[in-house]
Write a structure and sequence with these properties.
Layout lengths: L1 E7 L3 E8 L5 E8 L6 H11 L8 E6 L2 H15 L2 E4 L10 E2 L9 H14 L3 E6 L2 E7 L4 E9 L1 H11 L19 H28 L4 E6 L13 E3 L3 H12 L1 H4 L1
Parallel strand pairs: 1-4, 4-5, 6-9, 7-10, 10-11
Antiparallel strand pairs: 1-2, 2-3, 7-8, 8-9
Length: 258
């Protein structure tokens, strides 16, 4: 028996088929989240991962886009008799304690990241997720989520700049050895590469100074590999930290989900 586990982000959605007994990931697919609104695209993608009836009748997801979550839930119910549950639903036991006044403001992906880091690394962690937004989340070795920082995402910033300035061409961010660009593209790439490097280094430093703690730094998301040589602190790249967190939540809540 397998269970469908997934993460619905603003830009990308990730679906995983996970073995219920071993909790091992058996299959993974990615697709653009906005394709969820197309029944044809959704059907095509789900057929890639749900191939038999040996799938649990409850799926567990993190989602930051309620509209997409609702559409996917209706589709799964109608064609697969599977009900989608979101990790922030009340009957899902929390593994980390959320140390915030308004817990509902924390995105499900950030909760999943924190759970994944806490259970896997057993130490104070900063999880830096390069998604639509660039987020930093702070979780302690005692399993307390203490909040985080949200900055503009790399792709979102590039798109905003190129759409707003007529003479700025579209470009992709790449590693830059020199700070001073010799043409427009080099200048743009340098600004984004070294600008984000400075942002990352500075925020990590300020978190450690404010908390008076040392942290394991975990990078995830699309640009996790890009800043390998420009970040001053040692860090670990863990592309599956969000899914790992959802799997941990599933393990703790099997009696509600099977």
């Amino acid at each position: 028996m397998n269970v469908l586990i997934g993460d619905i982000g603003n830009t990308l959605t990730k679906l995983c088929l996970v073995a219920i007994k071993t909790h091992k990931i058996k299959k993974v697919i990615y697709f653009k989240s906005n394709s969820i609104i197309s029944k044809r695209s959704l059907n095509k993608n789900l057929k890639k991962i749900i191939k038999d009836k040996d799938t649990n009748k409850i799926a567990l997801f993190s989602s930051v886009v309620p509209r997409y979550q609702l559409i996917l839930n209706k589709f799964l119910k109608k064609f697969y008799k599977i009900k989608l549950k979101e990790i922030k639903e009340k009957n899902i036991k929390k593994i980390v304690k959320i140390n915030l006044k308004n817990k509902n403001q924390v995105g499900s992906d950030r909760i999943a990241n924190s759970v994944g880091a806490y259970k896997k690394y057993k130490t104070n962690c900063i999880i830096l997720d390069f998604g639509t937004a660039t987020t930093f989340d702070v979780v302690t070795k005692d399993g307390i989520y203490n909040g985080g920082i949200i900055a503009p995402g790399v792709d979102l910033s590039i798109k905003s700049l190129t759409n707003s300035a007529d003479r700025i061409p579209f470009f992709s961010i790449t590693k830059q050895k020199k700070i001073i660009g010799k043409n427009t593209i080099e200048a743009l790439r340098s600004g984004f590469y070294w600008g984000y490097s400075g942002l990352i280094n500075n925020i990590i430093l300020k978190i450690e100074k404010e908390t008076k703690k040392k942290f394991k730094i975990i990078f995830t998301g699309g640009y996790a590999e890009l800043f390998k040589t420009s970040i001053k602190k040692p860090f670990t790249i863990d592309k599956n930290i969000t899914i790992s967190g959802i799997i941990e939540i599933f393990k703790e809540n099997k009696k509600y989900l099977i």
